[in-house]
Specification:
The chain has a four-stranded antiparallel sheet. Helix 1 packs antiparallel against helix 3. The protein is built from three helices and four strands; from the N terminus they run E-H-E-E-H-H-E. The radius of gyration is 13 Å and the shape is globular.
Length: 96
């Protein structure tokens, strides 16, 4: 199984609204992309200086499935939105 984790820092402008919109769009991908086995989206409540605002935890059966997800049209639509409303992101992919 492949685990894909991404953390995002959002721009301050319309931050609360954008967090909810992105959360909804990401959660909607599980019904649109067959290779995506599971998804969990969390909005940070800690708000420490080190904290990111939103995290994405998703799973795939294989590296190939992660690759298919990465270039899937529905995923790219969400990526386009995320790029407009975030200032930073970090990612880690690993196999278990």
């Amino acid at each position: 199984m492949i685990v894909h984790i991404v953390m995002f820092k959002f721009k301050e402008e319309n931050k609360a609204s954008n967090l909810k919109i992105v959360e909804e769009k990401l959660n909607g991908l599980v019904s649109k992309i067959g290779e995506l086995k599971s998804i969990e989206v969390g909005i940070d409540f800690n708000q420490s200086e080190r904290a990111f605002d939103l995290s994405l935890y998703s799973t795939f059966d294989s590296r190939e499935d992660l690759g298919a997800y990465t270039v899937h049209e529905e995923h790219l639509k969400v990526v386009s939105l995320i790029k407009k409303v975030t200032s930073e992101s970090k990612v880690v992919d690993y196999e278990i």
